[in-house]
Structures are given as structure tokens and as C-alpha cells.
Amino acid sequence: IPPDRRTAHNKMKFTQQLVSLLVLASSSTAFVPQYQSTRPACLTTNAYPATTLFAGLLSLELEKPLGILLEEVEEGQPVGVKVEELSDAGSAAASQYADQLVGLKLASVMGEDVTAISFDDVMDKIIDAPSPVQIAFEVEDGADAGGEADETASAAAAPAEPQFAIGETVTITVIQGGAETPIQGRVGDNLRQTLLDNNIEVYQGLKQKLGNCGGAGQCTFCACDFVKSEGWLERSEYEDGRLAKSPNARLACLNNIQGPATINMG
After folding, report:
1. Helices then strands (H, E): number in the chain?
2. How wide is the angle at C-alpha 127 spanned by C-alphas 102 and 199, nearest 5°?
3. Predicted pLDDT at 52
4. 126 Cβ neighbours under 8 A, 6+ residues apart
5. H or E element that contains 261
6. Which long-range contacts (CB under 8 A, 24 or more apart) does 91-94 make?
7. Where is average pLDDT lowest: 93-107, 157-171, 239-253?
8. d(CA 67, CA 92)
9. CA 266/CA 255 separation, integer angstroms
10. Which pTM does this prediction carry?
11. For range 2-8, the mean pLDDT
């Protein structure tokens, strides 16, 4: 292919990827692929669940295509992106928080901080992420995050001390094999990913290493007992069901860091 035609071809292919991801170009849903959640039924609220909801952060797991139109927070500056609008054909519009998403800044994608990078870098992370994508949005303290879930979370999130700020570094002390290992994590980052990034053996034994669900919330192999914590809300109803015999346990993959904690990994 001649160089000029190859360049045009690559541009067209990239454009098609963005259209497929964001579902922005079509005004009709006739040719939009139907998306189906593969998440457990008890995880599903209006098809796409909020995995974490507390002061300052709303974290959602959304299937592709997302149907989210993003724009730079500040034109030409690497200070992140915010939601400009939603497409009715995407999974974000099916979320119970759809009415609150427009205008919110993205805090993280798959547990990685995206608040201080460029528009193109944020897009790359979303494109490279698996489906469903875990995206956290910044919300103002006290802002209505929508629906009955917000009322429940607000009732639970009433500690005497203020919540820890998104991006604030806190200590997670990991107890494993009788030894304690303190690691540093940032509020808003995914707990499972933070543990893995710090070389904590989340999956122990051949069965868990080969048979884990990769952070999809289904295998329960990443469960960890919370010995003590500060600033964390109650665990989700889904975790109550899957970890009924371990009342202090949480699934690391379904929790973003909310504050310092001591956890027992066995």
C-alpha cells in the first residue's frame, strides 16, 4: 500500500475503533451491537453496578461500548478529561447514575490514576482496558450520586472524621504467612491491583493462580479479611452473599481503596 494510502487507512481504522468504543457517530441503534452483562445477577443494578460509592468518588463497571463522549478538562493541558455527554446506545446511559455522570472528571481507569494525563493517554487506557471497564469519577462531597443506592451509601458513610481525599497516600498493612508487610496505596485505586503492584501474593497455590477470574468478582480467590480499617464503608450486598461465612472479608477486586487498613491475606 502506498504510504499516503496507508496513512489514510490507519486513520480510518483508528476512527472506527473510537466510534465502536464510544458509540457517538450513529444516530440510530439499528446497527449498534447489543451488549450483555456477564456479571453475576446479584451484582447487577440496572444492568451495570456501582462497585464503590463514597464521598469524593463514584466507581462504575461498564461494558463496552461505553457511549461516553469525553473532553479535556483544560484545553491542551494534561490534567485529565471529563464527561461531555452520553450516548443512549452505550452502557453508561443504562447505569442508574447516568443523570449524574455528565460533567464529572475521570479519576481512574482500571485502578490507574488518570487525573494528570492527556486526553490521548486517557483514551488509550480505555481502549486497551478489558470489558467491563472499571472507571472512577470524581464527585463533590455531599453531591447526590443518584437513587436508593446513594441514600444507602450516605447513611453508611457518616464517620466522625472526614473521608480521605482521592489520590491521598495511605498505608495498607498486609498480614500473610504470619508476617506483616506495609505497602502504600492511593485512595481511589483498586485494592487488588495495588496488592499485585506491590508483589503481594493475592493468589496462592496453583488452583488460584490458574483458575482466578482476573478481577471479575466471581472466583472469590482475592478475598481478604479486614482486621481494622479507617474511612471504609460497609462491604457490598454481593460480598455479603459470596462471603457469608467471613463477615469481615472483602473481595479485593471489587474494592477501591478508601483509607488505611490492615488486611489478612492468609
Report:
1. 7, 12
2. 105
3. 47
4. 21, 66, 109, 133, 135
5. strand 261-264
6. 91/35, 91/47, 91/48, 91/62, 91/63, 91/64, 91/65, 91/66, 91/67, 91/132, 92/48, 92/60, 92/62, 92/66, 92/67, 92/68, 93/67, 94/46, 94/47, 94/48
7. 157-171
8. 6
9. 18
10. 0.47
11. 51
Residue 137: what residue type? F
Half-sphere exposure of 22 (CA within 13 A, CB side): 19
Helices 3-22 and 119-128: angle between axes, nearest 10 degrees: 70
What is the grid cell recorded at 111? Answer: 485502578
Cell of 144: 447526590
25 pLDDT exceeds 50?
no
Nearest to 136 by CA among 62, 44, 73: 62
Q: For cell 479486614, name the residue.
A: 226
Q: What confidence score (pLDDT) does residue 94 get?
A: 82
